[in-house]
Design a protein that fits this description.
The complex is a heterodimer of chains A (277) and B (319). Chain A has 277 residues and is of the alpha/beta class. Chain A has 9 helices and 5 strands; from the N terminus they run H-H-E-H-H-E-H-E-H-H-E-H-E-H. Chain B is built from 12 helices and 14 strands. In chain B, strands 3-2-4-5-7-6-12 form a 7-stranded mixed sheet, with helices on both faces. Classes of the chains: A alpha/beta (277), B alpha/beta (319).
């Protein structure tokens, strides 16, 4: 077996931490956090020019998490990047904690309070327009869930992004194909998704959202077309990395029992050991 | 005396906004104007001419406009969103609540064609609930200036204030009676007269109606205190209490539903610190309809004579 890259090992560590803090909070969005964590890993460790040191710099890259409910994934990565001590996450979702169930600017590293779906893309569009107005070359990224795509504000913003030729903007769709009630295709089908984005004037790439190298390659090739906003449709698995959580609706908002947690950690540890062989 | 107040002209308050944003933009390079296809109605023509690169046409997509405004602040801009008051509030409440108010964003929500005086377009566009919607949002400043000059001054002033603001104004030509060179102070009530028999608290277009009513009452020998509450939030409770401790009764006047608007805010202040009889002038839990501003203000009980009658009634209730 090929040796895993540092980022692949990081992804396993992130997954373990997501589960740890969800268990501690007795709350969280397990499935979606596990589906988007590889994307966040690549963004924060390979793509974004953002750090605790430059977080107030006008030229930093901006990341806005539209699927705010998967805050555990974001907080784990921000802690790893040094925005705050990881032990703060022991207060996740607890009374008086800033580390609440959706991103808030009270936590260093968070650009925008999110959680109501369909908000991230319009905000990212506004931010990208500001960058163009100031002729600054920072980039704006937003991560959306496929389940939130029926929100009309997304498509309003998609039109504006193309109209203003925002090639400094990249949206990523975490297409894990499941949402709280049922498969996304049954709730409100958005396929064929690539054609929709193309029709709205975006340049589209589809990748395996768990393939670190494929994600890196996609981000490295931004903008996909000059003068167009870019969207990465990341094909992912809800609950990725833990066999009994994968593709199981129960884990949208499910919190593991201590036994399930132990089993999950042991699976993740095994995958790490295999990788090291 | 209210008779001494001079009317220096007639103009729509939205033109005060249009002229104010040009001055704000001249002073501050970060001021940006957004519109959802209503640049003409919002009097942005001069802004577009002078600052074409700082003008963002969003198209008819108000929810998107609010999100874009929030995003522009992440890039250090001071966005002014512009559309009619109904599309500025009810239509986009979630965007304002989550992405602007809760996020503490420096967005100026500028809303024209508020209230009955929009006139002919009728109930769909005559929002009478927007002050209530906006004042309930934590951290939101709510400003309803009374004439062209004050709207212009308020538009300039809000650029200097950091935080979300709802700025409400209107469509019709209206008397100008405040100073052209005024400095607008957010949260500071404006006294047009001092009196001891009754306080009349008004906002927006209704301030002029309150002055007219006050003149009639003065002619009858009453001593009337007309107060412009141009900032409904934060409310100048100190000024309100100072006034009602003296007059011991009040009439509130607003082009808005009496449920949730200025009157409620005054009543809450009074109930907490100095309970007095209050009469409310405003629409009473109803939608509007088509008509001229004059016809509609009369029909819905917001005319000068209604204020006069309310004043007599509330003075009688003092006992």
């Amino acid at each position: 077996m090929m040796k895993r890259s540092d980022l692949e090992i990081k992804s396993v560590e992130y997954r373990k931490k997501i589960l740890k803090y969800i268990l501690g909070a007795n709350a969280g969005h397990t499935g979606g956090s596990l589906s988007c964590i590889d994307i966040l890993n690549v963004l924060y460790n390979h793509v974004l020019n953002v750090s605790p040191q430059n977080f107030t710099s006008p030229t930093r890259d901006r990341y806005i998490q539209s699927k705010g409910h998967c805050v555990e994934a974001l907080f784990v990565v921000l802690a790893d990047k040094g925005f705050f001590p990881e032990e703060h996450l022991e207060t996740l979702c607890k009374y008086k904690s800033h580390y609440i169930g959706h991103p808030t600017r009270k936590v260093k590293g968070v650009e925008q309070n999110t959680g109501a779906l369909g908000h991230g893309l319009p905000i990212a569009v506004g931010n990208a327009i500001a960058a163009k107005l100031d002729k600054k070359d920072y980039k704006v990224y937003t991560l959306m869930g496929d389940g939130e795509l029926p929100e009309g504000s997304n498509w309003e913003a998609a039109l504006t992004a193309a109209h203003y030729k925002l090639d400094n903007l990249c949206a990523i769709v975490d297409k894990n194909t499941l949402q709280i009630t049922a498969p996304t295709a049954e709730v409100c089908n958005t396929d064929p998704l690539d054609e929709k984005w193309k029709a709205f004037g975006w340049a589209v790439k589809e990748v395996d959202g768990h393939d670190i190298e494929a994600l890196k390659a996609a981000f490295d090739s931004l903008p996909f077309e000059p003068g167009k906003p870019s969207v990465i449709i990341a094909h992912t698995v809800k609950g990725k990395g833990v066999s009994f959580m994968e593709n199981n609706l129960k884990w949208h908002h499910g919190v593991p029992s201590k036994e399930e947690y132990a089993l999950a950690i042991s699976e993740l540890d095994n995958s790490m050991q295999k990788a090291a062989v | 005396m209210l008779k001494e107040i001079q009317v220096t002209g007639q103009k729509d308050t939205r033109s005060g906004f249009g002229d104010g944003i040009v001055e704000a933009a001249r002073k501050n390079p970060n001021v940006v104007a957004l519109t959802a296809d209503l640049a003409g109605s919002m009097k942005l023509n001069q802004f577009m001419k002078e600052f074409p690169e700082r003008y963002v046409q969003v198209g008819i997509a108000e929810a998107n406009m609010m999100g874009i405004a929030a995003g522009l602040t992440i890039g250090g801009k001071i966005p002014y969103t512009t559309t009619f008051a109904n599309f500025s509030t009810g239509r986009v409440y979630d965007q304002i609540r989550q992405s602007i108010a809760y996020s503490g964003k420096n967005v100026k929500i500028c809303a024209s064609h508020a209230g009955l005086t929009l006139g002919e377009d009728g109930a769909t566009h005559q929002i009478l609930e927007d002050i209530g919607l906006m004042k309930m949002l934590p951290g939101m400043t709510v400003i309803v200036p009374c004439d062209y000059n004050q709207t212009k001054a308020a538009t300039i002033a809000v650029a200097e204030y950091v935080g979300p603001v709802y700025l409400r104004f209107g469509r019709p030509s209206w008397p100008i009676f405040t100073a052209a060179d005024q400095k607008f102070e957010i949260g500071k009530a404006q006294f047009f007269s001092e009196g001891k028999d009754v306080s009349i608290f008004a906002c927006g277009h209704m301030v002029w109606k309150a002055i007219e009513a006050g003149r009639i009452l003065e002619d009858k020998g009453l001593s009337v205190e007309v107060v412009n509450i141009h900032t409904i939030k934060p409310l100048d409770t100190e000024a309100i209490l100072r006034s009602i401790r003296k007059t011991r009764c009040a009439v509130t006047v607003e082009e808005h539903n009496i449920i949730g608007g200025l009157g409620d805010a005054i009543a809450q202040t009074a109930a907490k610190s100095f309970p007095i009889p209050i009469e409310y002038i405003g629409t009473n839990d109803t939608f509007g309809e088509s008509g001229t501003p004059t016809q509609l203000l009369k029909k819905y009980g917001l005319d000068t004579q209604n204020i006069v009658e309310a004043a007599h009634k509330v003075i009688a209730r003092k006992g």
